[in-house]
Amino acid sequence: MKLETILKCIKCNCKLTKSKDKFVCDKKHSFGIKDEIPDFILDKDKKILEEEFKAQKNSVWEYKNIETKAGTMSWRNWKKRLIVDKKGLVLDNGCGPGKLSLMIPEGNVVIGSDVSLDMLKEAKKRINFVVRAMAEKLPFKNETFDVVYTDSMLHHLKNPIDGIKEVHRVLKKDGIAVFSETHAALINRKLRRDAYKNREKFSEWHKNFEKKELLEIIKPYFEIYSIENVSYLGYMYEGTNRKIPCDKYLMKTFLAFDKIISKIPIVKTQSWHIIVKGIKK
Question: Do residues 229 and 271 lie in contact, with contact meaning Cβ atoms separated by under 8 Å?
Answer without folding.
Answer: yes
